[in-house]
TrEMBL record:
<keyword id="KW-0479">Metal-binding</keyword>
<keyword id="KW-0561">Oxygen transport</keyword>
<keyword id="KW-0408">Iron</keyword>
<dbReference type="GO" id="GO:0019825">
    <property type="term" value="F:oxygen binding"/>
</dbReference>
<dbReference type="InterPro" id="IPR012292">
    <property type="entry name" value="Globin/Proto"/>
</dbReference>
<dbReference type="InterPro" id="IPR009050">
    <property type="entry name" value="Globin-like_sf"/>
</dbReference>
<dbReference type="InterPro" id="IPR044399">
    <property type="entry name" value="Mb-like_M"/>
</dbReference>
<keyword id="KW-0813">Transport</keyword>
<feature type="domain" description="Globin">
    <location>
        <begin position="22"/>
        <end position="170"/>
    </location>
</feature>
<comment type="similarity">
    <text>Belongs to the globin family.</text>
</comment>
<keyword id="KW-0349">Heme</keyword>
<dbReference type="InterPro" id="IPR050532">
    <property type="entry name" value="Globin-like_OT"/>
</dbReference>
<dbReference type="GO" id="GO:0046872">
    <property type="term" value="F:metal ion binding"/>
</dbReference>
<dbReference type="GO" id="GO:0005344">
    <property type="term" value="F:oxygen carrier activity"/>
</dbReference>
<protein>
    <recommendedName>
        <fullName>Globin</fullName>
    </recommendedName>
</protein>
<dbReference type="InterPro" id="IPR000971">
    <property type="entry name" value="Globin"/>
</dbReference>
<dbReference type="GO" id="GO:0020037">
    <property type="term" value="F:heme binding"/>
</dbReference>
């Protein structure tokens, strides 16, 4: 099982020795106390994240073939786009729910990285764009509650997510996928 990609010129970094696998009690409490504010209108917030991403890096918008040539200002009303935004928020929710045992979500994040690697035109630097835009939307949504401690906790969570998605992306590029998809039970965490 391999990925059919045209990304042979991408340099695949080794996974760093430092493993972000444990969240402190403070991080868990902070994330869980802010998550209800961020997820109370998950579709709207998820849509806002992607709208910001598309404005920040228009080349990412072209990767969403299902959106066709829809005007960016009208995307928030398009059901396929809303569905993708909701799935994105479900991934975050799954991590929030499993912070004491993050190994539960790791294979799913790796598999999502594999899926992103299989998207023709997806570049690993897009993960940085997602991270930046996500934090910007979180700041907008949380307002004065987005103090530096909250921001640092969310940065840690985002770093965790990106780390495992990049690992899946890299595995796809190097054809190391034998166990990735079988380790994931996508029915358990239905955000596919």
């Amino acid at each position: 099982m391999g990925c059919e990609l045209t990304k042979n010129n991408v340099v695949v970094p080794e996974m760093p020795e430092e493993d972000v696998t444990v969240f402190s009690d403070t991080q868990i409490d902070t994330i869980r106390s802010t998550w209800p504010l961020l997820s109370r209108d998950g579709v709207r917030v998820g849509v806002e994240v992607f709208m910001r991403i598309f404005r920040e890096t228009p080349s990412i918008r072209r990767l969403f073939e299902s959106l066709g040539s829809k005007d960016i200002d009208n995307l928030q009303h398009y059901p396929v786009f809303q569905d993708h935004a909701l799935k994105f928020m479900k991934v975050l929710e799954s991590l929030v729910q499993n912070m004491e045992d993050p190994e539960v979500i790791q294979p799913h994040l790796v598999a999502l990285g594999v899926r992103h690697a299989a998207i023709d035109g997806y570049h690993p630097e897009y993960f940085r764009v997602y991270s930046k835009c996500l934090l910007e939307v979180w700041e907008m949504e949380l307002g004065e509650e987005f103090i530096s401690e909250v921001k640092e906790c969310w940065k840690h969570v985002i770093k965790y997510i990106v780390r495992y998605m990049v690992h899946g992306y890299d595995m796809c590029l190097t054809d190391q996928l034998e166990n990735v998809m079988t380790d994931c039970n996508f029915e358990k965490l239905d955000y596919t």
